[in-house]
Amino acid sequence: MVVLADACHHDLAPDALAFPGARWGKMATSIIIDTDPGQDDAVALLLALGSPLDILAITVVAGNVPLDLTVHNTLVVCDVANRSDVPVYAGAGGPLEGVLVTAEYVHGPTGLDGYELPDPTRHVSDGFAPDRIVELVMGHPPGEITLCTLGPLTNVALALRQEPAIAGRLAGIVMMGGGFFEGGNTTPAAEFNIFVDPMAAAEVFRAGIDIVMMPLDVTHKVLSNAARVDAFKQLGNHAGEVIAGWIDFFDRYDREKYGTDGAPLHDPCVIAYLLEPELFSGRFCNVEIETESALTRGMTVVDWWGVTDRAPNAQVMREVDADRFFALLTRTVGML
Ligand code: RIB
Ligand code: CA
Question: Would you tell me which of 213, 262, 299, 326 could form a disulfide with 225, CB atoms 3.0–4.6 Å apart?
Fold first, then answer.
């Protein structure tokens, strides 16, 4: 197991008020990735699968598209990376409460539109994802596994309900979700991953786990502009060509909505943090999830200015070195 330099050593943004103890321990690089592919999840998976990270399992959740498609897409992405060695487990088909909200309007009807790929060469592995998360975490020494979540947190909440002790054994969770100064992307207040299952997010953020949070405030700063997409095409390999196709499809929505030059590559921020934590900076804050209000359900209430007495529970990232992020991503994908 390769252990990264202590994640505490990356610099906080100059204006960040680092709360005493505002540092987490090492984020281990034996990981479980929980995902709902979606093109940006797929890019994150290729970054992880092409990196030295020790991927114990990929667990799948419904989100961008229904579970049967997120499972299919995960298996397809593993084939793109020639990594059928990594077990893939199906998880929750919907949130803890209420009905599933999906995002075909962003990702297309398949969830992975933009590049035609063959059906997967294997079937999903046996077992329910939350059960597998519990087994893996309880079967490894404390602090050895980092959970990387790229979608709604339903699988993680179900695993915590089944075995609360995983909270104390995980090295931590690095998650994509939420937003504060940036607001929401699904409602004015809520980002998609949290909006789909706010109850699950609330339970995860209250579980006492070391959390590194990648909200829209930081993911909207890694935009796949034309030069960056071209860099994937110039790699001359299959993975680079596939990613360029996915982004060409995926970025139309954000370009139109935000008028930006390219789409934000949300989920790869999670994996990039494990590989090069110094690319990111932020602040140790309290984060609570709104689960009641019809108007703001799924909002991540981030106490960035420390105006409450609520204990900080997450390292909330707000800044990223976007050029180095894309250099890492392109370099790693080029090795697939
Ligand atoms: O809001 C962006 C997040 O929701 C990303 O993880 C994207 O894949 C979707 O799951
Ligand atoms: Ca996702």
Answer: 262
What topology is assigned to 14-220+265-316 in CATH? Inosine-uridine Nucleoside N-ribohydrolase; Chain A (3.90.245)
| Surrounding residues of ion ligand 2, Cβ less than 5 A | 36, 38, 41, 150-151, 267
Write down the domain spans for the chain. 14-220+265-316
* 123: annotated active-site residue: no
First to last CA, the chain: 21
Whose CA is closest to atom 10 on ligand 1?
151
Residues 108 and 238: their CA atoms lie apart, in Å, by: 21
Task: Tell me how far the alpha carbon of residue 176 lies from the centroid of ligand 2, in angstroms.
Answer: 8
Q: Tell me if 69 sits within 8 A of 103, measured CB to CB.
A: no
| Separation of alpha carbons 82 and 78, rounded Å | 6
Q: What is the pLDDT of residues 51-79, one digit of tens each?
A: 999 999 999 999 999 999 999 999 999 99
pLDDT tens sequence across 119-161: 999 999 999 999 999 999 999 999 999 999 999 999 999 999 9
Query: Strand 314-320 and strand 280-285: pairing?
Result: antiparallel
What are the b/e assignments for 219-249, b being 16+ CB within 10 Å? Answer: bbbbbbeeebbebbeebeeebbebbbbbbbb
